[in-house]
Structures are given as C-alpha cells and as structure tokens.
Amino acid sequence: MVKFRGEVHPVTASIPAGPAEVTSDWLSAVLSGEDSYVAIRDVEVTPVGTGQTGATYRAAVSHSQRPPGLPDSFIVKLPSQDRTVTGWACYRCR
After folding, report:
1. How confident is the model over 84-89, as a mean pLDDT?
2. Cα separation of 86 and 22, whole Å?
3. What are the residue boundaries of the structural domains of the chain, listed by start?
4. Distances (CA, A) of 20 to 24, 45, 46, 51, 84
C-alpha cells in the first residue's frame, strides 16, 4: 500500500503476460512510490519492436495525477507472444 496525502492506495503489480495486461491500474501501481502516487487515467499500448525472446511496446498514457517530470509514454518489454520462443511448446519425449 502507498499512503499519499492522507489517502491509502493499494499497490499490487506482477509482470504482465501480454500487452492486454498493461492497464492503467498496473501502470499506476508500478510507477507509484512510497511518497508519491501516480494515477494513470488511460493507456494505449502499441508494439514498437520484437526480439528473439521478448516483445517491446510503447504505453502512451493520460495522467490523472503525476509527479513533476513523469513522461507521457513508457517503453514496456514483455515476454514474447510467440509461445514456441518462450518454451511453452511441448515436445514428445522418447
């Protein structure tokens, strides 16, 4: 939990499995700190690149509340959405 200006805000965040899980609530949680609360109102996630083991997205945001100097977009690197690359493929063992 983060307490900011007398208000308590729950903070829970895990690494998103895919771009659909990069939400305003998730970004608010990971950007908030002990003495600052970031409130993201909207987020638009678009792909900007892929690698061998991951995918990169730009998260363009609208803020409800933000500390000075926080940008309007962020780069988020997530696991590849290609399951054969991330080792989710099943192989028949002999």
Report:
1. 55
2. 19
3. 2-79
4. 11, 8, 10, 19, 20
Q: Residues 12-50: pLDDT tens digits?
A: 668 888 999 999 989 988 888 777 788 899 999 999 977
How far apart are the C-alpha atoms of 32 and 76, rounded to whole Å? 16
Residue 19: its pLDDT value, please? 92
First and final C-alpha spacing in the chain: 50
Task: Find, among 10, 60, 12, the residue nearest to 40 by Cα.
Answer: 60
Name the amino acid, one letter, at 46.
Answer: T
Instruction: Determine if residue 69 is left, alpha or beta; phi over 0 gives left, psi from -120 to 50 gives alpha, anything else beta.
Output: left
Block residue for tokens 């083991």: 53
d(CA 24, CA 22): 7
The DSSP symbol for 33 reads B
